[in-house]
Amino acid sequence: MGHCFSHDSIKTNEEQGLPKADAEKLKGVKIIFVVGGPGSGKGTQCEKIVEKYGFTHLSSGDLLREEVRSGSERGKTLSEIMEKGELVPLDTVLDMLKEAILAKAETSKGFLIDGYPREVAQGEAFEKKIGSPTLLLYIDAGSETMVERLLKRGETSGRVDDNEETIKSRLKTYYSATEPVIKFYEGRGIVRRINAEGSVESVFEEVCTHLDALN
Ligand SMILES: Nc1ncnc2c1ncn2[C@@H]1O[C@H](COP(=O)(O)OP(=O)(O)O)[C@@H](O)[C@H]1O
Ligand SMILES: Nc1ncnc2c1ncn2[C@H]1C[C@H](O)[C@@H](COP(=O)(O)OP(=O)(O)O)O1
Ligand SMILES: [Mg+2]
């Protein structure tokens, strides 16, 4: 009843999920989770994917930083959490993502959800409230590579979390909270692991093989 199980469209659940009209808009729209450690290159690859495939890029971190920039009281609290390298509350991120997804649902071919889910509970909540992912791109780089890239990015990013202390904490958060997400979705056969140690171009080539296989 009201369920849609077609392969490349997202499932909807009328009882707990989106209102019917919103669910309808998202029919056949691909949802791609982009998961990986801090500095693994998620954002970099997403930009290239947008260029070639025309998907819509939504970075949870960017959405949060926008809220911080707005100067709101909520933004201040979020910034403090990010500076500690911890995860902000689940509902905050999910609400932001949901709003951004619905705003573009009618015009988008697909969404790259970058930096989400960062814990299994986020994946479960997303599926309950929005829909199920078509694919999970696992951007996999070693911790040494990630630290090196983040320190370099920190020279110019102006981000409160691109410093040695916060990076350590972010890595801990990643290995304890986010890695289980990959295991969680592996059972479903939607995880595509990308070796992210190489150059931006070589990583992107690997990404493309998986995206080309989608249609
Ligand atoms: N394959 C790569 N090789 C070298 N540097 C990279 C590569 N991918 C990304 N970078 C650099 O590493 C830093 C982190 O990349 P970014 O895309 O912001 O990662 P994430 O979004 O996963 O934190 C950036 O400064 C970026 O330019
Ligand atoms: N899905 C999510 N849940 C909770 N906190 C999140 C989140 N996405 C981002 N954040 C918070 C905690 C992260 O350390 C910080 C920066 O996120 P980010 O910009 O995605 O980092 P990066 O791209 O370097 O991996 O924002
Ligand atoms: Mg990023």
Rg measurement, Å:
17 Å
Helical content (DSSP H or I, runs of 4+): 40-55%
Counting structural domains, the number is 1
The CATH superfamily title? P-loop containing nucleotide triphosphate hydrolases
Question: How would you characterize the overall build of this protein?
Answer:
There is one protein chain. This protein is of the alpha/beta class and 215 residues long. It has a single domain, classed as Rossmann fold (3-Layer(aba) Sandwich), CATH 3.40.50. Helices cover 53% and strands 13% of the residues. It is built from 9 helices and 5 strands; from the N terminus they run αβαβαααβαβααβα. Strands 2-3-1-4-5 form a 5-stranded parallel beta sheet, sandwiched between helices. Helix 7 packs across helix 8. The protein is globular, with a radius of gyration of 17 Å. It binds adenosine-5'-diphosphate, 2'-deoxyadenosine-5'-diphosphate and magnesium ion. Adenosine-5'-diphosphate binds next to helix 2, helix 7 and helix 9. Magnesium ion (MG) binds next to helix 2.
Q: Which characteristics define this entry?
A:
215 residues, alpha/beta, Rossmann fold, five-stranded parallel sheet, binds adenosine-5'-diphosphate, binds 2'-deoxyadenosine-5'-diphosphate, binds magnesium ion, EC 2.7.4.6, dAMP kinase activity, Adenylat/UMP-CMP_kin
